[in-house]
Amino acid sequence: VQLVESGGGLVQAGGSLRLSCEASRSTFTISVWGWYRQAPGKTRELVATILGNGGTTNYADSVKGRFTISRDNAENTMYLQMNSLKPEDTAVYYCYARERVLSLDYNYWGQGTQVTVSS
Description:
This protein is mainly β. 0% of the residues lie in helices and 58% in strands.
């Protein structure tokens, strides 16, 4: 599966952005979707995940109540709605998917999209 992110950019603090992650083929075998981010000089961290079957979501404490992860299986696309953005949200955001095929897990990453929040 190839993952392509879009929607990043420059926004002022308090503003909103919506990131998209489009998969290159049908995603019915994807067990977990997620968004990670990496700020300069820091390790990559989990932002949010959503299960492929039932839609159960999980968020990092730092984004709870501000970010919403969702997916559209018909469009093979996952989204991250980011509201009330803060300068500390500045990072490269990566789309992630885990696929289970014959009891084996395969991990896929997008190329990343830059999000910059100015104060």
